[in-house]
Design goal:
Distance between the termini: 16 Å
Number of domains: 1
Structural class: mainly alpha
Largest sheet: none
Number of strands: 0
Number of helices: 17
């Protein structure tokens, strides 16, 4: 299995840009409950886009999926559902910590668990479709370089998280609230930890779905698109957990009507609670909902989130036997671009020079890690193919 690792790194950067940017359109949603706009966006990212692009860009999608064993489909779906819990709480992480700190902490766990566990577990479960165990990878010079790049990446993620913690300790509460309305460090860290660990399931799901990609290649699909069919199964698992949770919140909070209504019920008018007087009758303009813009903003967020997986599978096809490093590259690029958005939205305004130096150092380490990993996988492909 060969490819162009540097092209793979480029695709992973595009995926990271999409993932690091997906939450931005949600900032334009007005007067909808979180569970409403999250599920609307989810329909686009987990159902509509995967099936639309896989149907149009691969051969015999239904035939490829139909020939898979129950075991392959189940584990691909199961780990996708596990990732769904991570994706669900990932949105909460953004609410409590902001884009830069939230992604830094959550993706630190995600990178470590998602990158290294598949080749480690291959020792105990030989059936795991990973080309080499961690020991085999570490026994070669290209493998050592690639693992060094992963170590640099994890170091960069740690520095980025430390920068976020430094900012949190330095900034007064009112300053944090200006950039992140629901800032809560303790709650955010707990949610981010759970989200990061569960989100690593996506890496496992893609590994479990390798036979789907191989079947798609055998059906005549161009190599670079062979990862799209397995996304239909992985994201169906993610959709299942998010759908059930959002519907539960709809029932609990009485927000299900918001999917189709252009007006809010008085008890759901945000300004009412802020006024601190429930007896005040809300004005007509307070009840009006910008329904179509909300749908469009949510759709833009969902489509952008799907694009991270679209580019991820493209990058993965170019990484050869070191495809396990794709996850690290993806995490690193997400943190780079999410931090960029954090700067744009002034999430770091008011923090010290120390915090700015730390986050800059973390970003530089992450950029260096992508170059190191790209070189390691390129060297592996050269040794495999020969001159």
């Amino acid at each position: 299995m060969t490819g162009n690792p540097f092209l793979g790194v480029f695709f992973h950067w595009l995926g990271g840009l999409a993932s690091g940017s997906f939450y931005v359109p949600y900032r334009g949603v007005k007067k909808w409950a979180w569970e409403v706009y999250w599920l609307v966006g989810g329909f686009f990212s987990w159902i509509i886009m995967p099936w639309l692009l896989a149907s149009t860009m691969t051969n015999d999608l239904l035939g490829v999926l139909g020939q898979q064993s129950t075991t392959t489909l189940w584990w691909t779906f199961f780990f996708g559902a596990m990732w769904g819990f991570g994706g669900l709480t990932f949105g909460l992480t953004m609410r409590y910590l902001g884009m830069s700190l939230g992604m830094g902490v959550a993706l630190g766990y995600c990178a470590a668990f998602g990158t290294l566990l598949p080749p480690i577990f291959k020792v105990f479960i030989p059936a795991i479709p990973v080309p080499e165990t961690l020991a085999q990878i570490a026994s070669t010079r290209p493998g050592q370089i690639t693992l060094a790049g992963i170590a640099v990446c994890l170091l960069g993620i740690g520095i980025a998280a430390l920068a976020g913690l430094t900012k949190e300790r330095e900034m007064p509460a009112e300053e944090k609230k200006k950039a992140i309305k629901e800032f809560n460090f303790a709650k955010g860290i707990l949610v981010a930890t759970f989200s990061g660990i569960m989100s690593a399931g996506f890496s496992f799901a893609l590994t479990a779905g390798i036979p789907i990609g191989e079947a798609s290649l055998a059906a005549g699909t161009t190599t670079i698109w062979t990862g799209l069919p397995k996304l239909c199964v992985v994201l169906a698992g993610g959709f299942t957990t998010n759908f059930l949770w959002c519907v539960m919140l709809n029932i609990k909070n009485g927000t299900g009507y918001q999917y189709f209504s252009k007006t809010l019920k008085p008890q759901h008018v945000a300004a009412q609670g802020a006024a601190g007087n429930k007896a005040v009758t809300p004005k007509a303009e307070d009840l009006r909902v910008p329904w179509l813009p909300n749908v469009l903003f949510s759709a833009a967020a969902g489509i952008t989130w799907y694009l991270q997986f679209f580019f991820y599978t493209m990058g993965e096809t170019q990484m050869g036997k070191f495809g396990f490093a794709s996850w690290t590259l993806h995490m690193a690029s997400i943190i780079i671009f999410s931090t960029m958005w954090g700067w744009i939205f002034h999430e770091w305004k008011g923090s010290s020079k120390k915090a700015h130096r730390l986050i800059a150092s973390g970003i530089l380490a992450l950029i260096a890690s992508t170059i190191i990993i790209g070189f390691g996988t390129w060297l592996k492909s050269r040794l495999t193919v020969g001159p």
